[in-house]
Amino acid sequence: MDNGTQYAPKYFMIAREIIGGIKDGRLKPGMKVPSENEIISRYKVSNTTARKCLQSIEDQGYIKKIKGKGAFVREGSIVRPATRILSFTRNMLEAGLKPSTKVLDVRVLAENYSAEIGGRLYTLRAPVCKIHRLRLADDIPMMLEVRHISLSLCPGIEKEDFTQSLYDIYEKRYRHRLSNVYQELGATMIDSGIQDFFDLSEPIPALLVNGVSFCGREVILEMEKSIYRGDKYRFLVGAT
Amino acid sequence: MDNGTQYAPKYFMIAREIIGGIKDGRLKPGMKVPSENEIISRYKVSNTTARKCLQSIEDQGYIKKIKGKGAFVREGSIVRPATRILSFTRNMLEAGLKPSTKVLDVRVLAENYSAEIGGRLYTLRAPVCKIHRLRLADDIPMMLEVRHISLSLCPGIEKEDFTQSLYDIYEKRYRHRLSNVYQELGATMIDSGIQDFFDLSEPIPALLVNGVSFCGREVILEMEKSIYRGDKYRFLVGAT
Q: Which end of chain A is least crowded, N or C, by CB within 10 Å?
């Protein structure tokens, strides 16, 4: 596949060059990309090719057209491999971004926590520690999460510093390693209720993740409910 | 996990019973579910429990509250296993629904088709057959898709009856079996442009799927771009 580009049409080669500039930071979020006319004169192509080039860059989510003003670089998208257990922290570091975390709420609950995932009911037995956090990348709010953690498996975890990766706490303090995770991905909106967390002035579509994490066979360590902003995130899945 | 319910709280047991009624068809889409007061008197529980019960059913996506009118059963959700190659047709049949397809457009293109999936560029070489279809379940529009198919691998496919499963055509007519699929799942909106296809009067969030399908090592058979309505679909993923 790596030689796929040698057969790519002209508009795609130009799009690739411009996207390359976005990826390596020469073109930063908010900056204007070359206009149709600039592409025509710089690359000596037809207006059809120039138009298709900008359309392709827009379709791939790198730019946003603003009527009468031109096309501007959007904040970059993050691809998250969905079939690999990966903490938010590591996912961001691998994408070259600086992760940070704002802890919104931590509490200990004496009730079981149950949720249905993939048509099956999962129950985390009491007591549980419930954590509400906002996760950021390069100081931009990316994801809002609620996690319920087994206090039987992680006694005293409510006193930890939750600006860290939870997976690191599980491993380093409790010697628990996640063995597998089931997640249900759905679509939702970031709107009135939670828009403020994301510094958004308008509602946007988002990905809703409902998950259950095991350490060992059938032993639930934690359950998650997260909202990932749709303009920043994509989940990558392989099927066989 | 199967005995998870024996530890479930009371509100959850009642929610489960009501959801059971929705699942087995006693409570059909559009029908009203018991109100808070009806739950209190029928199950002899507190109003807190009754409220939590309805909230839980709503959180799981089974009902929709309408102000001043009560809570009503929503159209059921379909869970699609994302790591298993599965045609829409089979996915619907396994969910007990009757799949159907409306072919919107078929054309043969002399240009390569390229798309970036998971940060990698994939190119399907010309000529390609481009198909635009609406997929329905029990006559309800579920998913809108554009597929580009290799005409070198499937010569003459443009003359096929595309109300059938494409995977069946690949296998039966061309003896091609999909070996693996990569898909990028993102969030988008079903709004003005395509709302009519779904018989929707208001925009709703949706899942956007960009995929590439291989038959054999590195041989691209088709590429897909689909929009699944968010009120009906969830994708299930396992990570290890």
A: C
Rounded Cα distance between B52 and B11, Å, is 6
**pLDDT tens-digit profile of B113-153?**
988 888 778 899 999 999 999 999 888 899 999 999 999 99
Radius of gyration of chain B (CA): 21
Dmax (CA) for chain A in angstroms is 69
ipTM over 0.95 threshold: no
Task: List the domains of chain B with CATH numbers.
Answer: 10-73 (1.10.10.10), 78-236 (3.40.1410.10)
The answer to whether B75 and A232 have CB atoms below 8 angstroms apart is no
Q: With contacts defined as CB-CB under 8 Å, which chain A residues touch B5? A: 121, 123
Which residues in chain B are contacts of A239 at CB distance < 8 A? 82-86, 180-183
Distance from CA of A161 to the nearest CA of B (A): 26
Half-sphere exposure in the Cβ direction for A129 (13 Å, CA): 19
Would you list the DSSP string of B104-158?
EEEEEESS-EEEEETTEEEEEPSSEEEEEEEEEETTEEEEEEEEEEETTTSTTGG
Minimum distance, in Å, between the CA of residue A157 and any CA atom of chain B: 23
Give A43-55 pLDDT, tens digit per residue.
999 999 999 999 8
Identity (one letter) of the amino acid at A156? G
